[in-house]
Design a protein that fits this description.
The complex is a heterodimer of chains A (218) and B (529).
Chain A: H1 3-12, H2 19-54, H3 56-63, H4 68-93, H5 97-127, H6 143-181, H7 187-214
Chain B: H1 3-7, H2 12-40, H3 51-86, H4 95-117, H5 131-135, H6 140-167, H7 180-212, H8 225-259, H9 266-279, H10 295-323, H11 332-355, H12 357-363, H13 367-397, H14 403-430, H15 444-474
Classes of the chains: A mainly alpha (218), B mainly alpha (529).
The complex binds copper (II) ion.
Chain lengths: 218, 529
């Protein structure tokens, strides 16, 4: 076979025999990926649990230094973005292109808003000397354990923020393709996949929020 | 057939070959490090390399062999090539992801290699904290980053296999008609996607801790180094099964074919694979018996480690029973497979010594451990990998290799392997610690034996490289099914066309329909309709 014919055959021989099969496969693939992500974040929560069990008082004291108001506002922002995302998935499924683009845009904007608020939070914590390793200041008796808490705080929220940023890029690409490329056959599928990912990142925050912001304040 | 057509291919068969070439390169780099170590250990004095260099050598050997050879070895090459062919699919579910996974592997590999060559790392492949985070002044972060990147290549391969095996099986190919090779790759993929992210995050935390000198592993600041060990072994014990389960799949295919018998106890073989993968997630603590975990935790981990021996023993029993009253022929793949069964059994049984709490106190961190895991990973996995390469070589390349040379190499490998590693069991029992570059003179005889064996082993590895390469152009042309084997991959031409199957096959028969039980000849199933 000539190389041209080979390439053509390879192009034609997508692994799937029909759209249903492709949809099911992408669905399963995404869920497997999210399972992987769950274990990825699982390590953080496990580490948090272990440290908290060792230093319950210091963690409570340090937890009260997180910004409750901004954390709560951000939770609301993210939940609203998830609502917009869910509606976007629905809009794409019933082939309302304009609505889908608008709702994806709303999701994206709320995602960016979350990151901006988070940035202000980080800035305040930096000014209050709560960044581990960089002139960390805390009540001397609890300093090391509190530093551990804030180390976990920055790592957990930081890795979450990276995931969120990736989600923003993905949604941006999907929305741009929908807006400028028109409605393709696989558009509902790609919106749905982006949606699954976005909801996952949201759910991770739903676990981070009580661990870092709420528990100490009960 | 330009280079670019290979580097941009989405064909699972070509990606498998890309992987095969890259892991072979890494195998010989890792092997070179081992060679230097065996030369150093020929005499009790540390005279060839310094202690620091020796530490870097065993780290390089471990990191490269584990993450850049053993983990991807069978799944990413033979698995990549054969999974779609064995289930009657045109490709893996996500061909582009498959190519991405290879690029990630290469990127991680080059990154690691550069770090190892530019100065190296002396932590051992286990990266234990706080040594890796606080005390080591070598390139820890660079190597850890390389392993992290390669981890994502593993995850993508596993994800692709899971979806492919679930969704792309040919009509009629039910779960209990799947070849055991597929079962093994399914279980392996589940481990890949569940365990690898834990390693990835653990290494991330290690890196951050090393950069900022604060973190949850640092005991000086309230962290817990045992936590690192728990997380590391939560991945690294199942990683052993990433290496051995696909090997078991290969061996089942080969033994059935060359004894002309269906695999004895097919269903129990499939369940045993799943059981090993499942229980394998619950035994990691046996690496930490002497590192200060709770004594009750130690007891439970010990008990569960013994429990894994049961499904493993079922497999060995069934392979033996498959041979019973078979028409056995000792082609090269069969020699490798039989070698696997023996070495795996030996390595597995020595694992029980280590799983016993009291005995482990004496044996831990000695050459006994080194011998044990080399019997499993090298004697087991690498033998099976080479057996698989020899078994499917005609299918992959369309050429036959010189059979006498291949049989000779298989026997040589088996002898060389035992010659190299059996003395290490004795060294361990006598108390020689691992990772030392000098030792007391009374250990010299056994060390010299081991180094001499390594020479034979090295020839056993180089020979196939020579005659297999030779066969690519000079070998006899292979028919579609030179071994008279069952399985869909043997129903297509050798090498298979790009689209694998002209028409989707329909499967109507049970797996391994070898005579005398087969109704018709050796063909298993699936005339395409
Ligand atoms: Cu283990």
């Amino acid at each position: 076979m000539s190389s041209a014919a080979r390439a053509e055959a390879a192009e034609a021989s997508g692994a799937f025999s029909d759209r249903d099969q492709q949809r099911e496969a992408c669905d399963l693939g995404m869920w497997v990926f999210l399972t992987t992500e769950t274990l990825f974040f699982g390590v953080l929560f496990f580490g948090y649990l272990m440290a908290r069990l060792r230093f319950p008082e210091a963690f409570a004291a340090a937890g009260r230094h997180t910004d409750f108001a901004l954390g709560t506002i951000n939770t609301a922002v993210l939940l609203t973005s998830s609502l917009a995302m869910a509606l976007a998935v629905r809009a794409a499924a019933i082939r309302r292109r304009r609505w889908a683009v608008l709702l994806l845009g709303a999701t994206l904007t709320l995602g960016v808003a979350f990151l901006v608020i988070k940035g202000f939070e980080y800035r305040a914590e930096y000014l209050q000397h709560l960044v581990p390793g960089a002139d960390f200041r805390f009540d001397a008796a609890q300093r090391d354990a509190a530093q551990l808490f804030f180390w976990l705080y920055f790592v957990m929220t930081g890795i979450h923020a990276i995931h969120l940023a990736i989600g923003i890029v993905v949604i941006g690409v999907v929305a741009a393709r929908l807006a400028f490329g028109g409605f393709a056959l696989q558009s509902p599928l790609s919106v749905e996949m982006a949606g699954l990912y976005w909801h996952f990142v949201d759910v991770v925050w739903i676990f981070i929020y009580p661990c870092l912001y709420l528990i100490a304040r009960s | 057939m330009t280079l670019w057509s290979w580097l941009s291919t989405h064909d699972h068969k070509r990606i498998a070959l890309l992987y095969a070439i890259s892991i072979t390169a890494f195998f010989f780099i890792g092997g070179a490090a081992a060679t230097l170590m065996r030369i150093e250990l020929a005499t009790p004095a540390g005279d060839v390399v310094s202690a620091e260099t020796y530490n870097k050598l065993f780290t390089m050997h471990g990191v490269i062999m584990v993450w850049f050879f053993l983990i991807p070895s069978i799944p990413a090459t033979l698995g990549n090539f054969l999974v779609p062919l064995m289930i009657g699919a045109r490709d893996l579910a996500f061909p582009r992801l498959n190519l991405t996974s290879w690029y990630l592997y290469v990127a991680g590999g080059l990154f690691t290699l550069a770090a190892l060559l530019l100065g190296g790392v002396d932590t051992g492949w286990t990266f234990y904290t706080p040594f890796s985070t606080l005390y080591s002044n070598t390139h820890v972060i660079a190597v850890v980053t390389g392993v992290f990147i390669a981890g994502f290549s593993s995850i993508l391969t596993g994800l692709n296999f899971i979806v492919t095996i679930h969704k792309l099986r040919a009509p009629g190919l039910t779960w209990f008609r799947l070849p055991l090779f597929i079962w093994a790759h399914y279980a392996t993929s589940v481990i890949l996607v569940l365990a690898t992210p834990v390693l990835a995050m653990t290494l991330t935390l290690l890196g951050i801790e090393r950069l900022f000198h604060v973190g949850i592993f640092d005991p000086a600041l309230g962290g817990d180094p045992l936590l690192f060990q728990h997380l590391f072994w939560f991945y690294s014990h199942p990683a052993v099964y990433i290496m051995i389960l696909p090997a078991m799949g290969i061996v089942s295919e080969i033994i059935a074919c060359f004894s002309r018998n269906p695999v004895f106890g097919y269903r129990s073989m499939a369940y045993a694979i799943i059981a090993i993968a499942g229980i394998g997630f619950l035994v990691w603590g046996h690496h930490m018996f002497v590192s200060g975990q709770a004594v009750y935790a130690g007891m439970i981990f010990s008990l569960l480690s013994f429990v894994v021996a049961i499904p493993s023993a079922i497999k060995v029993f069934n392979w033996t029973a498959t041979l019973y009253k078979g028409t056995i022929s000792f082609e090269a793949p069969m020699l490798y497979a039989l070698g696997f069964v023996g070495l795996f059994m030996f390595g597995g049984l020595s694992g029980l010594f280590l799983a016993a709490l009291a005995l482990d106190v004496h044996l831990t961190d000695t050459y006994f451990v080194v011998a044990h895991f080399h019997y499993i990973m090298v004697g087991g996995s690498v033998s099976a990998y080479l057996g698989g390469i020899h078994f499917w070589w005609p299918k992959i390349t369309g050429r036959m290799y010189p059979p006498k040379w291949a049989q000779f190499a298989a026997v040589l490998l088996f002898l060389g392997f035992n010659f190299t590693f059996f003395p290490q069991y004795l060294l361990g029992v006598e108390g020689m610690p691992r990772r030392y570059h000098e030792y007391a003179p009374e250990f010299q005889t056994l060390h010299v034996l081991s180094s001499a064996g390594a020479v034979i082993l090295a020839i056993g590895y180089l020979l196939p490289l020579v005659y297999l390469t030779w066969s690519l152009t000079r070998g006899r042309k292979a028919s579609a099914n030179p071994w008279g084997a069952t399985g869909l991959e043997w129903t297509v031409p050798s090498p298979p066309p790009v689209e694998n199957f002209g028409e989707t096959p329909i499967v109507t028969q049970e797996p391994y329909a070898y005579p005398p039980h087969a109704v018709s000849g050796g063909a298993r199933r699936a005339a395409s309709t």
